[in-house]
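Researcher: Good morning. I'm working through a list of sequences from a screen, and I'd like to move beyond sequence-only analysis. For each chain I'm collecting a predicted structure so we can compare shapes side by side. This is the next one on the list. No need for commentary yet; just the structure.
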Amino acid sequence: MVQRFHDRKEAGQALAEALTHLRGTSDLLVLGLPRGGVPLAWEVAQALDAELDILVVRKLGIPWQPEVAIGAIAGNGIRVLHEDRIQALNLPADAIEAVARDEGKELARRETAYRGDRPPVRMTGRPVVVVDDGLATGATMQAAIEALRTQEPSRLIVAVPVAPPETIDMLKTLTDETICLLTPERFMAVGQWYERFDQTSDEEVMRLLGTASK
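Model: Good morning. Structure tokens for this chain:
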């Protein structure tokens, strides 16, 4: 078993191998969470001969430490909050609203940039695989799952290369299937499990989506 991934391409290929039981599934849809999840989702969609699209979700971070999540938002007004963390930090409601407002603007910007004039794909009645490059608290993926459940897919599968065991245990209660290649006990950040973890650009997301649509 690999202990670290070289980059997102290798992680995506490894995920695709773990998902080979889905190859040949009728009407299969693979969704990448931008930005970092899209290169992996592209590899998965190519290997499984599935349609590729995106689901834009934004993490809500602590105002003075944005990389630490207190929740996440997705389209359709979906919001997931870590109430225990918010209470422990004694965060006022107006501070949370300010973060959610800013992230909502970025969510809308990304939707427009990545999708352009292309309408959202149909998800109702389809088996859907949601891919990201790794999870910490799982708040972003939880928001994605809640948003997707409103679309009534026939089956909902989450696939990630790395996440803490407790995050995967939580997601297994929310999905039909959850695939995770590495579940290290000593988990600090997603990037520590990659040799190369460069930021994925908007341009790369759009290029991969354009390649997949052809």
